[in-house]
Design brief:
With about 180 residues, the chain is mainly alpha-helical. The chain is built from 6 helices and no strands. The protein is about 90% helix and about 0% strand. About 5% of the residues are buried.
Amino acid sequence: MSPWQLVVLLGAFAIVCAMVIPRKKAEAGSNSDDTVEQMQTALEHFMEQMESDSRGMVETIAKARNEQREDSRIQEQRIAVLEQRCAELEHKLAGLQESAKQAVKESVQPLPPAEAIQEKAVEETTEELTDELEHNQPIRERYAEVFDLYGEGKSVEWIAKKMAMNKGEVMLILQLAKQEEERRV
């Protein structure tokens, strides 16, 4: 081929290429524009969805916070009522305790000590025994059972329990019997 034919052929090829390449770029450009638009649409949809979810979460949190405040207010009111009732009950209890103390003071005399009770029992027994001595009734006859038990070797404590007497009484009876025997001798 001759050089001029080669130049014409190369020129024709360049013109054809020049026409084909811009079309591909235009097609590719329209495809990329569509892709960008689709990505923007998807991104906007995603953002709207996130914003909607965020609003829902904010509303749920606000509702929960309001419910908690309401529950707290109700509990505080209940606590106040219970504290008031507790104070009233403590006041009533104090009044009842005071009235019980007054009733106890008015109705109960203080008990004498155990020694005073024993002394009183011994004095009564002594009076009884003195009366018996004056009436010439021997003490051994009057308290024969006590002397029988003592003669069997039973202890003073055991005799006192058996006869439902004080230990001091039993000892006094035994001593008076000895004194009575000494007088007769």
